[in-house]
Design brief:
There is one protein chain. The protein has about 100 residues and is α+β, with helices and mostly antiparallel strands. About 20% of the residues lie in helices and about 40% in strands. The chain is built from 1 helix and 6 strands. It has a 4-stranded antiparallel sheet with strand order 3-4-5-6, with helices on one face. It has a two-stranded antiparallel ribbon with strand order 1-2.
């Protein structure tokens, strides 16, 4: 007989149980989409969770092809891509530095 055991993961930090993640609390404070080629868009954004969360810089890459759009992790960029997103990053950092 096979037995299925289901474990519930608890979110704990320092022994305190944390409330669950609520996607409706996500805020986009700044967003700039930079087209670096006809098939690649890099998104530079400043995001915050709720009113008290830390502001964070987010970078993602959107690949566009005949099948539609798909998101890809932002790990490596070409020199041309890096140069293209520099103005957007500079603007994002200004938002990141505000209260």
């Amino acid at each position: 007989m096979n037995e299925v055991v289901i474990y519930q993961k608890k979110q704990e930090i320092g022994g305190l149980r944390m409330a669950g993640y609520d996607k409706t609390q996500d805020k986009t404070l700044f967003k700039s989409e930079v087209e670096v080629s006809p098939s690649t868009v890099i998104v530079v954004g400043i995001y915050q969770y709720g009113d008290t969360g830390k502001k964070k810089l987010g970078l993602s890459k959107k690949i566009i092809n005949e099948g539609g759009e798909r998101w890809k992790g932002f790990g490596r960029v070409t020199l041309e891509e890096w140069e293209a997103i520099q103005p957007a990053i500079q603007n994002a950092v200004k938002v990141l530095g505000t209260q």
